[in-house]
Amino acid sequence: MFSMLPANEEGLLGKVSCSLSEAFEIKSGHPIFMLRSIVSSPRLKDIYVRNFPVDNLVQVGDSYLDKHTMLADQNQKTYAISLVDWQAQEGHADVVTEFNFRDTSVAKLQIWPFDPLTLSEDQLRIAVAVSFNEFEIFDEPRLSLALGELLETMSITTDYTYKFN
Questions:
Q1: Which of 47, 53, 104, 128 has the most CB atoms less than 10 A away?
Q2: CA 127, 69, 23: angle at the middle one, nearest 5?
């Protein structure tokens, strides 16, 4: 039986493995949408900020994939911040909606419902993977390949096709 788990669930990797072992496989693994059906995305909202203190934040999104796969990151690094921490700092943040793609003073913050610093490496890997939505995965083949590489040891694949009429 499948149940939705948060990414900070105790023993997440074991619970995911157990749930997936009860499911069918396509080709050489379970499609990523099955992982996304078991673990809820921690990504509540994205915000771009200029000159925000990121030293104590965890890199996620494309920035995490850049460190762990062959995907190259953008100039604006992506970090996770808890909703509580964001609400405490929001009034002092320089939120931007337009910026030059070369502007490294801008960072992308993903607002998460819990503190990403509390996650184990396995939990963080899964949280990052499920934080990407289907449109992002479908729209960017390089992202799909990077996620496939990141999740290969879990027998999760992004190698499935969408068919539209």
A1: 128
A2: 50
pLDDT at 23 over 80: no
In tens, the pLDDT along 37-83 reads: 999 999 999 999 999 999 999 999 999 999 999 888 889 999 999 99
For the chain, the average pLDDT equals: 90
One-letter amino acid for residue 50 of the chain? R
Q: How far is CA 107 from CA 19, 128, 146, 161, in A?
A: 36, 17, 21, 32
Q: Give 50's strand partners.
A: 94, 106
- Which residue has 């996304």 as its token pair? 36
Q: Which domain, by its residues, includes 55?
A: 24-157
E strand spans, 7-136: 30-31, 45-50, 58-59, 78-82, 94-95, 106-112
* Residue 10 within any structural domain of the chain: no
> Which of 151, 162, 160 is CA-nearest to residue 125?
151
Question: Domain count of the chain?
Answer: 1
Flag whether 138 is in a domain: yes
Does residue 29 lie in a domain region? Answer: yes
